[in-house]
Structures are given as structure tokens and as C-alpha cells.
Amino acid sequence: MRFHGLALLTGAVVLGACSGGANKADTTAAATPPAAAASATPAAGAVAALPATGQTVDIKMIGDDKGYRFEPANVTIKEGDAVRFTMVTGGPHNVSFDPTTVPADSKAQLDANMPQKLSELSSPMLMNPNETYTISFAGVKPGVYPFHCTPHLAMNMKGTITVQ
Ligand SMILES: [Cu+2]
User: Rounded to the nearest whole angstrom, what is the distance from the C-alpha of residue 149 to the centroid of ligand 1?
Assistant: First the structure.
């Protein structure tokens, strides 16, 4: 109790000192970085995910005796729509956008709109039939967004999402 009171008193003294002059304000700023740095880490991914506001377009993830593919592989959507990937056969599959081909001005938003990523712009693996993974394209600017399945890239499991 006594200790707590002392801590409060110390805090009050520091506050009082802070309001004293410009130099003290600098001291406060210098003392702030640990907190700022801590919040700067989330700030790097500070773009908030935006929920879809439009239609949901479906793409199936298939691996069978005809090969590995997205079906349809190429879709055209509007900004604000969502694309829902459904694991059908031949998994694990995922959805991965190549950071070097995603339009730079939408990269952070698209990345933010992808939940539970394995890595930047890369969805988790869908293992079981009927598992889905939905990506909102809210705030993702018009452009062409090529994507692929990481495990089956060599088997040409690729597609493109064109945002109008
Ligand atoms: Cu695949």
C-alpha cells in the first residue's frame, strides 16, 4: 500500500517535471521509443483487413488424373468482391501470390486481407475436401493478380484474378 502510494507520487513528480520545459519533453520523447517500437511491429502490417462488400466468386482446387488445376483458373471480379477457394481433390493446395507480380500499391492490402498466412501473400494449406479459403478484394485496386498453388507450381497449378 505504502509502496503503491510512493509509485504514484513518483509518477506525479515525473509528470510535473515534464510539463516544466521543452528539454523535459525531449526526455519524454526519448523514453517513448520502446513503446513505439513495440507498436511499430504490428504497424508494419498496420493495413487492416477489409471485409468484402460484393459478390463471392468460387474457384475449385483440383488434383486428379487430368492434372492439378484451379477451376476456373482465370476469373474477373470487381474491387470489393471476394474469391473463395475450395479444396476438392488432390490436396494439399494453397493460394499464393508472387510478391513480385502483385501490383505494388495493393500488396499490403491484399496481404492484410489474407487470414492465417504461411508467409507474405501465401495462404495456409487446405488439406481436406470442402475446406475453403476466402480472400476479400476490398481495397485491392484494379489490376491482374497471378496466383499459384505452392505445392503444385511445377505442375502448372496457376491462375489469375483480374480486378476491374
Ligand atoms: Cu495444389
Answer: 5
